[in-house]
UniProtKB/TrEMBL annotation:
GO biological process per UniProt: DNA-templated DNA replication
Pfam families in UniProt: DNA_pol3_delta2 (PF13177)
Protein's recorded name: Unannotated protein
Membrane spanning stretches: none
A GO MF label: DNA-directed DNA polymerase activity
Length: 388
């Protein structure tokens, strides 16, 4: 067993990382970086679902493991869960990573490794750094601490500040094949071959989403509703109705995932400030702390809605992608095989250049949402384009 076993279709990445870990075992591994496979800063890029964060965390596990990432020892298990004292895993549930968070992080990672070996920082959403936060991080990467390794993750190199990426070694992950993802679902999660094939195909190689689809019927039903929306677009009124449906679905999903968690977090914080204890009630500062938590929860919910919309738009894009394939005379590689009849009929009633324009409109809407455009207005404008 190895920490690299779950990196599906990334053999080239595994080879690079294993060589880097092996280099750290030499006596002067950090003394002459330029002549070694190892360096102090890395950036892992790849499409959603390719496993860039998983690769970075596996790298961190291997660095702190005495046997190069066995996957079973205490160091490996604690590193993957974020409980290892020398491994920092930075995840953001908000819209951005702010400078205060980076400054606090830099204070912690300035310490020497507490258990020997390396101090490793995995930043899963380096593309969400604000400009000021990125500049603060740059200084740390330019002047790294002794035996400190930075592992940054982002969709593409262009999502990382140029001055940061120029100081990092780049590792590019690829989208796993449908067959590879389906095999993992069957072997690891016990999913039936038919369901595994469906989930791997419609998730387009996104392992996490494939598993989520395969094991959750309500998610599959929601996707079915989303995939039928293009067929309902007959005019302006239907476009506005489709937009509202998308917003409602994304909001409902975000609320269902966050409500119980939000209340649990507030209860835990209140308890920490003395709620329910005898005496005068909660300690000073409790009200302010709870308000700050509620503000963070609201930001997290906003991001969840936007992420839900983005996933829905990607699903809709696969509909038009399949339409384009039929228009090009290729029916063999459809993503949405379950809708083949409807897709074929739609393709014969529309022009190829119109299909391309609609796909471009979907991609533009995704970019606008990522730039914090108003969700409802953005989706309404998109649906009006798709209804033409």
């Amino acid at each position: 067993m190895s920490v690299f076993d779950n990196l599906v279709g990334q053999e080239h990445v595994i080879d690079i990382v294993k060589k880097a870990v092996a280099a750290t075992r030499s006596e002067d591994a950090y003394g002459d970086i330029s002549s070694q496979e190892m360096t102090h800063a890395w950036v892992f890029t790849g499409p959603p679902g390719s496993g860039r964060s998983s690769a970075a965390i596996a790298f961190a596990q291997a660095l702190v493991c005495s046997t190069n990432g066995c996957g079973t020892c205490k160091a490996c298990r604690s590193a993957s869960s974020g409980a290892h004292p020398d491994v920092e895993i930075i995840r953001t549930e908000g819209l951005s990573i702010k400078i205060d968070e980076v400054r606090e992080l830099l204070t912690r990672v300035a310490w020497a490794p507490s258990m020997g070996g390396w101090r490793v920082v995995v930043m899963e959403d380096a593309d969400r750094l604000t400009e000021s936060a990125a500049n603060a991080l740059l200084k740390a990467i330019e002047e790294p601490g002794n035996r400190t390794v930075w592992l940054l993750c982002a969709p593409t190199l262009h999502d990382v500040l140029p001055t940061i990426r120029s100081r990092c070694r780049h590792v590019q992950l690829v989208t796993p094949s449908t067959q590879a993802v389906a095999q993992v679902l069957q072997n690891r999660d016990g999913i039936s071959p038919v369901m595994a094939d469906f989930a791997a195909r419609v998730s387009q190689g996104h392992i996490g989403r494939a598993r989520y689809l395969a094991t959750n019927e309500s998610v599959r039903n929601t996707r079915t509703t989303i995939m039928k929306l293009p067929l309902t677009l007959k005019g302006i009124s239907s476009a506005f109705a489709a937009a509202q449906t998308l917003i409602d679905l994304a909001t409902e999903q975000a609320n269902s995932e966050s409500e119980e968690r939000n209340q649990s977090e507030i209860d835990d914080l209140s308890l920490a400030y003395g709620k329910g204890a005898t005496g005068r009630g909660m300690a000073t500062g409790a009200s302010k702390a709870i308000k700050e938590l509620e503000k963070e929860q609201k930001t997290r919910s906003t991001r969840m809605v936007r992420d839900g919309l983005d996933a829905a738009l990607l699903d809709i894009a696969t509909f038009y992608r399949d339409v384009m394939m039929v228009q090009a005379g290729s029916n063999d590689s459809l993503i949405n095989k379950e809708l083949e009849h409807q897709i074929t009929t739609y393709a014969h009633n529309t022009k190829a250049h119109t299909t391309i324009n609609k796909i471009n409109a979907i991609m533009s809407a995704r970019i606008n949402l990522n730039h914090n455009a108003a969700p409802l207005l953005t989706i309404e404008a998109l649906m009006c384009v798709l209804a033409r």
